[in-house]
Write a structure and sequence with these properties.
six-stranded antiparallel sheet; 6 strands
Length: 134
């Protein structure tokens, strides 16, 4: 079961498509290495790589109050690859893993915080994969 099939539907999500000159295996290795420094939880299953980062507990406790608490936003990234010509086609989907909530409304800058974090997640993965964004 993939990350997307778990829990509550995300409030925030973004999908990008890239081309990389690297092989599919090298794309996974590069992205895994890039997120290793964040203590991300990383899992690979065939042509799918899943990356989870952030802390639901810390973000629920501190919210948007501090820079470090905004970096704790619970988010995930799924990366699907397929060989294409002399490189790899990459489909990347970033989304929040905030989980259970009483409302689907975003409060107190949450929308910007999550949007910024998803953009940073996708940018870091694209840079690691030496990807050109389509």
């Amino acid at each position: 079961m993939g990350l997307e099939a778990r829990g509550t539907k995300p409030m925030f999500e973004k999908t990008e498509y890239w081309s990389s000159p690297l092989s599919p295996e090298s794309v996974f290795e590069a992205i895994s290495t890039a997120f290793g420094s964040e203590k991300a939880r990383i899992r690979q299953d065939g042509d799918l790589l899943e990356v989870r980062t952030g802390s639901n507990w810390q973000y629920r406790l501190w919210g948007n109050l501090f820079h470090w608490s905004r970096q704790a936003v619970p988010v995930a990234l799924t990366v699907r690859v397929r060989a294409a010509g002399e490189g790899t086609q990459v489909d990347a989907h970033a989304f929040d893993t905030f989980g259970f909530r009483l409302t689907d409304h975003a409060f107190f800058g949450t929308e910007k915080t999550f949007a910024d974090r998803l953009d940073a997640l996708l940018s870091k993965a694209a840079t690691a994969a030496s990807a050109s964004r389509d």
